[in-house]
Specification:
mainly alpha; 10 helices; disordered N terminus
Length: 228
């Protein structure tokens, strides 16, 4: 697939007025947020707390950046203008991925059938959109448009995929799956910026991946303590 940005070109991105210093701050903040997953989710098992804090922090950051610059949301990909074109690119990948999940789940006898997936199909796309904003929007997007660092798009895709995959250590299925997902999503994002489509597909694919391939119930993992 040709990596061609159909959103803002490089000269247009400069009009958003983002300095390299801010871009590095955002990349480092994303890495710190991802590192917190190992402490709060993997070690302390505070999944709901971690997700809530990340959502609040970055939600506030987006709000204040929007107050400073009204163009920033469109620049990041929070826009409805590219919905259909992005959807047409992502849909075939989603169908292939879902089919692979069911086949793997059937072969390894890990298919889980539970109503718990229904609320996740609503909630997980919200979390998925935030993840796509952090990893694809802020890491891939900033690496592409940084003035003092001119990387080839293949390198940008590779770095972004590595960061996203390593956040899911030590679960090797998740490392492989999210790494492939990040490669594809980075290519799409660098061509057409739309975080909504990427976030929804991320959430839906992630939910089915847990209940088919991993035989895990993230609904219980996140909300289970409230029902004990």
């Amino acid at each position: 697939m040709n990596i061609e940005n159909k959103g803002m070109d490089h000269s247009e991105s400069l009009s958003v007025g983002i300095s390299d210093k801010r871009r590095w701050f955002e990349i480092i903040a994303v890495i710190v947020s991802g590192t917190g997953k190992f402490v709060f989710m993997d070690w302390l098992n505070w999944r709901f707390f971690y997700i809530t804090i990340v959502c609040l922090f970055w939600g506030i950051y987006v709000y204040f950046r929007y107050k400073q610059n009204k163009k920033i949301l469109t620049y990041w990909g929070f826009t409805g203008s590219n919905l259909s074109s992005t959807f047409s690119l992502v849909l075939p990948f989603g169908i292939i991925a879902l089919s692979a999940f069911w086949v793997i789940g059937f072969l390894q006898n890990s298919l889980m059938v539970t109503w718990h997936i229904l609320p996740l199909l609503i909630l997980y796309p919200i979390w998925g959109t935030i993840q796509q904003f952090l990893i694809i929007g802020l890491v891939a997007g900033n690496l592409q448009d940084m003035e003092g660092l001119r990387l080839h798009k293949i390198a940008i895709v590779g770095i972004t995929a590595l960061v996203f995959a390593m956040v899911h250590y030590p679960f090797w299925y998740l490392i492989g799956g999210t790494g492939l997902l990040a490669v594809f999503y980075s290519i799409v994002y660098l061509r057409i910026k739309n975080l909504y489509v990427l976030g929804v597909f991320h959430g839906w694919l992630g939910a089915f991946f847990f209940y088919t391939v991993l035989e895990r119930d993230p609904y219980i993992e996140v909300f289970g303590k409230f029902f004990e």
